[in-house]
Automatic annotation (TrEMBL):
This is Nitric oxide detoxifying NorVW flavorubredoxin. Belongs to the flavoredoxin family. It comes from Candidatus Scalindua japonica. Keywords: Flavoprotein. InterPro entries: Flavin_Rdtase-like_dom (IPR002563), Flavoredoxin (IPR052174), Split_barrel_FMN-bd (IPR012349). It holds the Pfam family Flavin_Reduct.
Amino acid sequence: MKKSLGAKTLAFPTPAWIVGTYDREGKPNVMTIAWGGICCSKPPCVNISVRKERYSYDNIIEKKAFTINIPSEHYIKEADYFGIATGGKTDKFVDTGLTPVKSDLVDAPYIEEFPLILECKMIHKNEIGIHTQFIGEIVDVKADESVLGEEELPDINKVLPVFFAPVIRTYHGVGKSLGNAFSLGKEIRSLNKKP
């Protein structure tokens, strides 16, 4: 029997993504978000949700661009800090010693030390309760060569991304592989084929 927990943001996992933006003066800023994910294949797009009172909100509105910086678990302290400090009062790059890099494709910075970067131009904005959802078209993905695996694609076991458990407020790393997608279910399909 299942127990009702009420209406909560309990969906596992959510990403621990770092959103990169520039403010009006051109100062690079980053913030941690957990409300985000891939939302379209063609064109390739992500969605992120940001509260209006966050420093990054106006930056996204003004520049119509942002980056998604996927930290490895080696940078968990920095990722957490980016979510608890405000760019309106401090320079998070100075505080952490990480390096902002100006994107050549969108008006937003990315973090040199993080292994996987998505450069995005904002194409839609939706007001949803206390958050605004921004849809960003991915114009490029940059990956450190050290995290590439087969077919020159990022290997999750080399990237070591961070996951967040909402409400419980804990971070988690990559677990064991359970098998190949679009393959495991073929056994069930073959058992249920009608003659």
